[in-house]
Specification:
The chain is α/β, with parallel strands linked by helices and 323 residues long. The chain has helices at residues 18-28, 47-58, 64-80, 100-115, 134-147, 170-178, 192-202, 218-226, 235-241, 252-257, 276-287, 291-304, 309-318; strands spanning 5-11, 83-90, 121-129, 152-158, 182-187, 207-210, 230-233, 262-264. Helix 3 runs parallel beside helix 4, helix 4 (100-115) packs across helix 5 and helix 5 (134-147) runs parallel beside helix 6. The protein binds zinc ion (ZN). Zinc ion (ZN) binds at residues 9, 11, 158, 186, 209, 267.
């Protein structure tokens, strides 16, 4: 029996299946030459090509209807991987330019699409983009606060980790927290252990996107373990983008052994030619993860999910070993 999976770190545009984007481009008569390999997958060589291809693919995602259809395509892909619960990063900057009224329409389209698939539960984490700066982040936080509820349950930050400091965005995170949203931010993917320290101290997040570079700071590793701060680890993404040169040097297993709560996600899976099933296969291959570890990691994810207690109970029940 395969163990049900819970995914906490997935960018909705970054999860767009290539066939879906190709189909949409054809419908709209948009030329996406240079985006796909001959076998239909996204071209991928390095980070700068990833950004170019990602942006080109996003040009066909032009309105709420497209984002509704995108949600369906992404969730169907997740269901195939055995995912029963997923949290997706949704960015008002790409969905109506940070305008609350426009954002509401995009959000409803995604929520409606998700509600049609009973095999999987979805929640949205409204995400500001770090390199767009603190003012745009405030607009995103306002969208998040205005739509906080059953579907929008979290607020986070993605984007270029080398721009600005976590603390520059404290106002937005505070606004989101006041609206009852749970908090996560990308840190320690590129910005070193110190960016994880800043995230914990200045934004008071309960989860960290990636966070793997915390491994370079022993005291910080202990702090994360002691305070039960959960890492959304995306090993395939880290290896594809060269944060670590290969799976063997990835710190996920060392972090887990040292008591840090780790979970496993795919980030932007088709862009990195991965999926959640492959991630677990490779974790098994390189670190000897067997069913009990896979189950433990998914229980951690269920406990750390930004959802209501009834949903959490349901997830934990699904993860109980068959007796
Ligand atoms: Zn990410």
């Amino acid at each position: 029996m395969t163990i049900p999976k819970i995914e906490l770190h997935l960018h909705i545009e970054g999860a767009a299946p290539p066939a879906f984007i190709r189909g949409l481009a054809q419908e709209k008569g948009v030329n996406l030459t240079g985006v796909f390999n001959e076998d239909g997958s996204y071209k991928f060589e390095d980070f700068s090509q990833f950004l170019r291809v990602y942006e080109a693919a996003c040009t066909v995602l032009t309105g709420p209807e497209e984002f509704g259809r995108l949600t369906t395509a992404v969730l169907e892909q997740s269901i195939e991987q055995g995912v029963i619960y997923t949290e997706a990063f949704l960015s008002p900057d790409f969905c109506g330019g940070g305008d609350v009224g426009a954002w509401r329409e995009y959000m409803h389209a995604m929520q409606e699409a998700a509600a049609k698939l009973p095999e999987i539960e979805m929640r949205g984490i409204v995400t500001c983009i770090r390199h767009f700066g603190p003012d745009k982040a405030k607009a995103a936080a306002r969208c998040a606060a205005e739509t906080a509820g059953d579907f929008i349950t979290g607020f986070g930050m993605g984007g270029d980790e080398m721009q600005g400091k976590q603390g520059d965005f404290a106002y937005s995170f505070h606004m989101a927290r006041e609206a009852g949203l749970r908090l996560t931010t990308h840190a320690g993917e590129w910005g070193g252990a110190d960016s994880v320290r800043q995230a914990v101290r200045d934004l008071e997040v309960e989860r960290i996107g990636h966070g793997v570079q915390a491994i370079d700071d022993d005291a910080l590793v202990d702090h994360l373990a002691e305070h039960e701060i959960v890492l959304e680890v995306c090993p395939g993404s880290n290896v594809a983008l060269g944060v670590y040169s290969d799976w063997h040097s990835h710190p996920i297993e060392t972090l887990r052994e040292r008591g840090v709560l780790v979970t496993v996600s795919t980030d932007d899976p088709p862009f990195f030619h991965t999926n959640l099933g492959m991630e677990y296969d490779l974790l098994g291959h390189h670190f000897g993860w067997e069913d009990d570890t896979v189950r433990e990691v998914n229980v951690t994810a269920a406990k750390a999910a930004f959802c209501d207690d009834a949903t959490r109970e349901k997830l934990l029940k699904a993860l109980e070993p068959a007796s």
